[in-house]
Amino acid sequence: MINQVYRLVSPRQFEVTYQDFSLKSDMIVVRPTHLSICNADQRYYTGSRGKEAMAKKLPMALIHEGIGKVVYDPKGEFANGTKVVMVPNDPTEEDSFIAENYLRSSRFRSSGYDGFMQDYIFLKRDRLVEIPEDMNPFVAAFTELITIAMHSITRFESRSHKRRNTFGVWGDGNLGFIMSLILKKKYPESKVISFGKTQYKLDRFSFVDETYLIDDIPESVKIDHAFECVGGLGSQYAINQSIDLIVPEGSISILGVSEYPVEVNTRMVLEKGITMIGSSRSGRADFQNTVNLYKEYPDIVDYFSTLIGEVQTVTSIQSIIEAFEKDLTSSWGKTIMEWKI
Ligand SMILES: NC(=O)C1=CN([C@@H]2O[C@H](COP(=O)(O)OP(=O)(O)OC[C@H]3O[C@@H](n4cnc5c(N)ncnc54)[C@H](OP(=O)(O)O)[C@@H]3O)[C@@H](O)[C@H]2O)C=CC1
Ligand SMILES: O=C(CO)[C@H](O)[C@H](O)COP(=O)(O)O
Ligand SMILES: [Zn+2]
Prior knowledge:
The chain is α/β, with parallel strands linked by helices. The chain has helices spanning 39-46, 51-57, 137-140, 143-159, 174-186, 199-202, 234-245, 266-272, 284-296, 298-304, 317-329; strands spanning 2-10, 13-20, 28-36, 60-61, 65-72, 83-86, 89-90, 107-108, 121-123, 128-130, 166-170, 191-196, 210-213, 223-228, 246-254, 275-278, 308-314, 334-339. It has two domains: 2-143 and 307-339, Quinone Oxidoreductase, Chain A, domain 1 (Alpha-Beta Complex); 147-278, NAD(P)-binding Rossmann-like Domain (Rossmann fold, 3-Layer(aba) Sandwich). It contains eleven helices and 18 strands. The chain starts with a strand and ends with a strand. The structure holds NADPH dihydro-nicotinamide-adenine-dinucleotide phosphate, ribulose-5-phosphate and zinc ion. NADPH dihydro-nicotinamide-adenine-dinucleotide phosphate (NDP) binds at residues 38-40, 145, 148, 170-176, 195-198, 201, 214, 229-232, 234, 237-238, 255-257, 279-281.
């Protein structure tokens, strides 16, 4: 069959390409229905990813957050119409110690390998996970971002000490919201403190114990473990502030992506014996755990719906551009594309 792939060819410019795909393969065919824009996609769309990376990775279909419906399963295990979330990481080998998303041989969609902006996606059997039939599709669309927080919490649990009285989450955007909410659900007895730059954003974190603007933190505030969900240059300030507030031997999980290296107060990392945990992307197990989380705490999906920002119906390349432009000027939440192209 002929598939249409919508690729970014240069900043703010998309082109359609046609790919022939044989239905005789073992791949499951999924029709995307709701796609969600990640900051990483925006760095390619705007060209801020840097000349070298742009030259190396483009042309490429963007988007690694999305859901769809199964339209063809050669083994018939998934009924046609089954709603699924698609896993963007594609491992080519297994390792007993290194998770699939850290293997240098793995391919990741919309980072050097075509993402979900296509008419149909051809997926290996373990690259999709069924989602609850009645789940809000606009929330399900950004499940991948939720798996990022789930994955980092799994890493945190196996690498940090067990005193978890107080968590500090830096970032008053999407990932900070998701991280704060999951921590509060998983550790109801622990205090969760969210740190941000903007009061009206922090006002939406109604479920946490305390929120602080980063330039107005009382001296008494101390945390056992920190999660940095900021990225860019702001991550430098966030990491160093968390180093200042952390109780010795705590852990700092770093999730924000920075285009340039940031300066970290290593002297205090050493003096306090801090464990720094880097966390990037996620794998199939994190998707399954996230779908289980939706089932265990159905109210969490309602909280996540606070993050639905702009919604754009996509029927043409022009409407793809409109979605990305809207996302750039939106001050809160995720931009979701209803994929009807
Ligand atoms: N590790 C991974 O696998 C993944 C990482 N990411 C990365 O995580 C980061 C966050 O993503 P997302 O939440 O969607 O982005 P957002 O832009 O929605 O959130 C970042 C928020 O942090 C705020 N901020 C800036 N500086 C500080 C500071 N010093 N302390 C506290 N808050 C601050 C920003 O405010 P303002 O806008 O006013 O500056 C913004 O509200 C990005 O870098 C993204 O690329 C995303 C997905 C996966
Ligand atoms: O968003 C992400 C995962 O959800 C990662 O930040 C993204 O994969 C980083 O990719 P790149 O190196 O292409 O910026
Ligand atoms: Zn992403």
